[in-house]
Amino acid sequence: MAASPTYRLSIFDSIDDGHHTDYLAYLIHQFSHKQDVELLLIVPENFIQSFKNNRQVWGFDLGNNIHFHPLDSSTIQRLHGQSIYKRSMSEWNLYVDISEAWEASHGLLMYFDYFQLGMLLGKKAHFQLGGIYFRPNFYYRKASWKSAFIKKWMLRLSTLRSSMKVLFSLDHKAVKHIRPLLRKTQVMRISDPVRAYEVSAEELLAFREKWHVPANKKVCLLFGNLDPRKGIEVFLQSTKHLTSEELGQLCLLVAGSISPAYQAHLEKLFQQYPNLEIISIFQEIKGKDIQLCFEAADLVLMLYQNHVGMSSVLIRASISKKVVLGTHYGLLGKLIQSMHLGLVVDAQSPVQIAEQLEQYLNLGIGFSKEQMEKMEQENSEKAFADTLYQGLFL
């Protein structure tokens, strides 16, 4: 008879797009090989169905120690239809109820930021808790003193009331600012996990042919969950400041999931730039197709508008050894500059973006291959899961 698992870990995440689904898939795969852990995922049923249907194609394992509690579409709509404050309370209380009924010994909030009010005012959790903190931006210079004060006190009180064991920060520079605020909670750096895929020359050629990616132009990739924060509009505006010869050397590849309304907006906007070749892949992209998007590109655009924290796009660019043109703001700007991964710019200035594009086309952009390899190694899915395991259980 097999020994009982040492730990019973419940994980909650009600969002089924973007990095959320990637993180969950990585944890399922990695924890399938940690037989001392019984894992319950409280997640949207859409994610569960998609993962089970595609996991073999994507290359993910599913151990018999992995269990699911599906959140149906009506539950998701009810939760997400509330104000952010009511949603924090509702999701937290739901998470506690399900976890305690399952007799969890440990819990992990995949998006700690959302749950602080619920943790402070909602039900008491009687199991050890961890959470991933995405946007600890109270220490940013642009943060108002009032906003920073509120965020600090919410962080301190919510973790104290919930007896939180460990808080994982994706923003590594924030750790030294968080630690003095928390008494009993351990604070750990955690890397943004990314899976690298082997891509053959034949697969890359097939991808280029399928999407008509030109071989004689510099392909600028804008990848991810597409919304106004990605800086698509400002990039398009910047091309008005290029010469016709420079514009003819560029191709914009826009790839990722998108809302119907924003897709209609972009398709109409693209028509206003007939001299710029634009390729759009408006769909959720998973597995090896992600890698193919980056392999087909020459320059990765990260013109995020006041983005806080890390982004897996920077890591994927490093995996494919592609240079970046990104925002100078926040952690991303510091990483791009300090690790020599490309150029930074005021992502709200079309003129400055155009100037950097001119430099790229005429002089190129230097980068450090060694730093790209370091970025890849530090942000593997295994490193991500191992850090969670260590912080939660050891």
UniProtKB/TrEMBL annotation:
Keywords: Transferase. InterPro entries: Glyco_trans_1. The keyword Transferase applies. Signal peptide: none annotated. It comes from the Bacteria. Residues 207-377 form the Glycosyl transferase family domain. The keyword Isomerase does not apply. Pfam families: Glycos_transf_1. PANTHER family: GLYCOSYLTRANSFERASE WBBK-RELATED. This is Glycosyltransferase. It comes from Aquirufa ecclesiirivi.
